[in-house]
Amino acid sequence: MASATATRPGSSDVTAGPRTDRRPPVPRTFYLFLVPTLVLFTLSITLPAVMGITLSFTDSVGFGEFQFTGLTNYVALFQDPAIRSSYLFTIGFALVTVLLVNVLAFLLAVGLTARIRAKVALRAVFVLPMVISGIVIAYVFNFLFSNSIPQLGQATGITFLEQSLLADPDLAWVTIVVVTAWQAVPSALLIYIAGILSIPGEVYEAAAMDGASARRRLVSITLPLVAGYVVINMVIGFKNFLNAYDIIVGLTNGGPGTATRSVAMTIFTGFTGGDYAYQMANATIFFLIAVVLAVAQLRLTRGRSALS
């Protein structure tokens, strides 16, 4: 006869006593090592941020005395067409660039994980742009767009290329997207390669035995299994592209006129032009947008155990 205290399948063993998987206490010495980091973070990040948010409610010009003006700067921001234009340009540029970067990076990752020769060397070549400074890349492409490409257009008779795209208010943003994508593709490429390599080879072998074509394996296996990496790359890329500054400065410096002036450039220009408190309010709003995206990125990253 079975004992009445026998443990049922799937139930917890109540006779095993209290759980012993509690984490050991952290030694106090560890907290001492945190003190320098906390002090530096507070002095360099937290304190300036608090001071900046406080000054956004004033009429400060960056020095001297100031008066508190309440929400005046924030109300003026929402009524300023130049501010709206900078946000529209920045968001549009970030959306187009993040789509272009992820499409190119995914296709390159598929190619560089296939059974081709010299794929390791090709991976190294494609990653090289990631280690070059953005401002250096921008000045190199500035020379190409301003001199080499117009000369090529004149030599070949392609009128579209005879004039520098950097001087065209309607097309200058295209050059920024191209150059930014050229530098950003490698980081997204590495994430996609990691995601594709994490897919078990048996899955592809079984699909091949069932007669699935390469295109069908790409659409029905690779894409669904790297969907988490796509989301993470999109969020990280969009957040980074919102802060675009160095490449825009090196290529167009916000021009022609203000056609390619991003939010970051608008804020920096305001700091040096006497609109300190006004642009500090702009920076506060931009900071809140970045915080929302960072929280979304953190939640998505935690939800993808494949990257942990």
From TrEMBL:
<dbReference type="Pfam" id="PF00528">
    <property type="entry name" value="BPD_transp_1"/>
</dbReference>
<feature type="transmembrane region" description="Helical">
    <location>
        <begin position="29"/>
        <end position="51"/>
    </location>
</feature>
<feature type="transmembrane region" description="Helical">
    <location>
        <begin position="87"/>
        <end position="112"/>
    </location>
</feature>
<comment type="similarity">
    <text>Belongs to the binding-protein-dependent transport system permease family.</text>
</comment>
<feature type="transmembrane region" description="Helical">
    <location>
        <begin position="218"/>
        <end position="236"/>
    </location>
</feature>
<protein>
    <submittedName>
        <fullName>Sugar ABC transporter permease</fullName>
    </submittedName>
</protein>
<feature type="transmembrane region" description="Helical">
    <location>
        <begin position="124"/>
        <end position="145"/>
    </location>
</feature>
<feature type="compositionally biased region" description="Polar residues">
    <location>
        <begin position="1"/>
        <end position="14"/>
    </location>
</feature>
<keyword id="KW-0813">Transport</keyword>
<dbReference type="InterPro" id="IPR000515">
    <property type="entry name" value="MetI-like"/>
</dbReference>
<keyword id="KW-1003">Cell membrane</keyword>
<feature type="transmembrane region" description="Helical">
    <location>
        <begin position="276"/>
        <end position="296"/>
    </location>
</feature>
<feature type="transmembrane region" description="Helical">
    <location>
        <begin position="171"/>
        <end position="197"/>
    </location>
</feature>
<keyword id="KW-0472">Membrane</keyword>
<dbReference type="InterPro" id="IPR035906">
    <property type="entry name" value="MetI-like_sf"/>
</dbReference>
<feature type="region of interest" description="Disordered">
    <location>
        <begin position="1"/>
        <end position="22"/>
    </location>
</feature>
<keyword id="KW-0812">Transmembrane</keyword>
<keyword id="KW-1133">Transmembrane helix</keyword>
<dbReference type="InterPro" id="IPR051393">
    <property type="entry name" value="ABC_transporter_permease"/>
</dbReference>
<feature type="domain" description="ABC transmembrane type-1">
    <location>
        <begin position="87"/>
        <end position="297"/>
    </location>
</feature>
